[in-house]
Amino acid sequence: MSDLKATVNTTENGFAVTGNEEIKYSFQFVDNIFDVAHDHLAKIYSNWKRVLLVTDENVNRLYSEQWAAYFEHHGIPLTTFVMAGGEKNKTMTTMLSIVDAMDAFGLVRKEPVLVVGGGLCTDVAGYACASYRRNSNFIRVPTTLIGLIDASVSIKVAVNHGNLKNRLGAYHAPMITFLDFNMLKTLPEGQVRNGFAELMKISSCADKRIWDLLVQNGPALIETRFGRLDGVDPNLKAIADEICWRGIKVMLDLESPNLHELGLDRVIAFGHSLSPTLELAPVVPLRHGHAINIDMAFFATFAWTRGLLTEAERDEYHKLSHSVGLSMDHELFTEEMIVKGTNAILKTRDNKQRFAIPHPYGTCMFINDASYDELFEALKVHKELIQQKYGRGVGLDAFCDSGDLGMDPEVLRKRARILLAETNGLNGDAPVQIDVHPINKAAEAGVGTTAVVDIIAVEA
């Protein structure tokens, strides 16, 4: 919700307008949001006497019976639109299908759409709401750990376009976000691990208390879905709740003054300097949490080489990553990748590196003067450390599955085999080592790549 205040002054040749828009939105913690005993949603939608709910296929499969029973109990007619999930479907086509659903529903001005899903679903549906009549209300119920503690804090909404991730979007706040951490009960362990990396990001740079709790309880938090599985020690649940509450509060404290990203020194950019390039480098992309953790683990090593972290602090980051199964290295994390990633991020950071670095844990500083020689030397040290202590450094469930992609990962592997076979003059069924993203090999060989990389998007 927003209120706009403006002044109009006459100038010599026309007018000058100064406007200030007050943005209001709220967060509410509630367990079992679709329990009929709760009236949080019913109070809102009883005023409209109906509800349009937008979700994705996976969430619809898990929760459709619950929300159908909820709205039936409260006498509110429900219309559900189910969008296709996965990165392949984070497109204008999907967004416009939601717009069509709004039209068919007859959505009126200020009537809020109910969006229930992970970060991808809320991104696309939120962008549809931002676009429909230029500003339609929505209510957000995130269902993944990343959605609950990271994506839900932002007012950014977007779709991919032209093989670039989140290239088209807007800043559009929901009326309210309901935070139901019991949703984590149905989340696969790999997705909980994926979101855990975002908590490592914010705590290592902004909240030492959260960091210490993660270090002490990391594996148990993931195994118990942050204390939400039945029979879990109440003390662990209390710790998990404190972590999540503080994490969201810290994110809001940092981001609320900078909702439109006018300030480019962003603490929450830790882990997001090289990872946008690395994330999509393998044939089957890395999960976001694993990609950002490789970035963060590397910069923990880099910080140690600069004397910004002690050896014990460096090792603490690596040990926590290993204990929870997050990746710390990848064979494609190379000097070339560092150059590509740095060049890409300079374009979005006003030609400055702005590398966020914990110094020490719980606080943050920004680096703008790292030379490639220094980064390459730190990379060499990092790879040696990870190899000696932890092996290859690739974590558990590190790569996207069909739910993440919106397609079978084997399709990508098959396309890569065909492309590499064409590059090397072989039959498409011949065994070919797939060690890089197909777009890289194609670029080297001058082979067309449109059909091969049609679902791959690089962070804009």
TrEMBL record:
CDD domains: EEVS (cd08199)
Gene Ontology molecular function: 3-dehydroquinate synthase activity; metal ion binding; nucleotide binding
Pfam families: DHQ_synthase, DHQS_C
Sequence ranges assigned to domain 3-dehydroquinate synthase N-terminal in this UniProt record: 81-193
InterPro entries, A to Z: Dehydroquinate_synthase, DHQS/DOIS_N, DHQS_C, EEVS-like
Protein name: 2-epi-5-epi-valiolone synthase
Known cofactor(s): NAD(+)
Highest taxon of the lineage: Eukaryota
One BP annotation, GO: antibiotic biosynthetic process
Gene source species: Heliocybe sulcata
Xref: PANTHER family: 2-EPI-5-EPI-VALIOLONE SYNTHASE, 3-DEHYDROQUINATE SYNTHASE
Alphabetized UniProt keyword annotations: Lyase, Metal-binding, NAD, Nucleotide-binding
Segments forming domain 3-dehydroquinate synthase C-terminal: 195-334
